[in-house]
Task: inverse folding
């Protein structure tokens, strides 16, 4: 995950059975939510899309 406000990067483990709609940056405490058109914060701020999207399915 990369925070768009402060640029802080942290390696996180993506859940395979649920979408994560909110994420708080550990550094600046900004509460992130998915960008328009994305289903979860991993799709918006991660280095890869969430597992359902990777599998060609719709997200949660």
Result:
């Amino acid at each position: 995950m990369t925070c768009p406000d402060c640029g802080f990067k942290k390696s996180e483990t993506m859940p395979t059975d649920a979408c994560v709609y909110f994420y708080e940056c550990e550094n600046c405490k900004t509460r992130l939510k998915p960008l328009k058109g994305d289903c979860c914060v991993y799709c918006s701020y991660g280095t890869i899309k969430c597992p359902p999207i990777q599998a060609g399915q719709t997200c949660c």
User: Anything to note?
Assistant: Residues 52 and 58 are 6 Å apart (CA to CA). The helical segments are 41-45, 51-54. Residues 41-45 form the longest helix (5 residues).
